[in-house]
Structure formats: C-alpha cells, structure tokens
Write a sequence for this structure.
C-alpha cells in the first residue's frame, strides 16, 4: 500500500520537490506565470494615435497619471460629517 502511494506521489511530482519547499513554490509560480503568451497592446496618445514604442508608452503613462492626480476634488462638509466615525 505504501509503495503504491509513493509511486502515485512520484508520478504527480516527478522532480521530488515538495510542495511546501521554497524551491517547489518558486517552480510552480514560474510555471503558472510564464505559461501564457505575453503581448504589449499599443497605447493611444491624446490625439488618438497608436504608440508602439516602449519609451513613448511609459511617457504616456506618466502623462496620464499626472493628469489624473492633478485634479483637485472637493467634498461637501455635510458629506464628511455624515460618515460614521469609528470609536477612538
């Protein structure tokens, strides 16, 4: 019985690396992360043109987030006061 279980375990894990070891974890993670096809989707500039150059794409992301976070939002004082406060 024990030999049969050991043989089944060897078939499921032929490398002999236990699922609880760091090396086993890294190997499973690498296999799962790299088992799909990676592509880069072209970004669009503000004018709608496709950007395929990697450096220009990064510049576009900087521009996008700079615009996104430069806007100042205002919140009504009544709205803030209506939020339930946690006990301190």
């Amino acid at each position: 019985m024990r030999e049969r279980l050991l043989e089944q375990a060897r078939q499921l894990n032929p490398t002999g690396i236990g699922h609880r070891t760091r090396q086993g974890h890294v190997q499973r993670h690498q296999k799962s992360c790299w088992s799909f096809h990676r592509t880069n989707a072209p970004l669009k500039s503000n004018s709608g043109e496709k950007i395929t150059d990697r450096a220009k794409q990064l510049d576009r992301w900087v521009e996008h987030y700079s615009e996104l976070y430069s806007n100042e939002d205002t919140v009504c004082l009544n709205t803030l006061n209506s939020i339930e406060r946690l006990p301190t």
Notes: Residues 7 and 33 are 28 Å apart (CA to CA). The two ends are 60 Å apart (CA to CA). Strands lie at 43-44, 50-51. The mean pLDDT is 77.
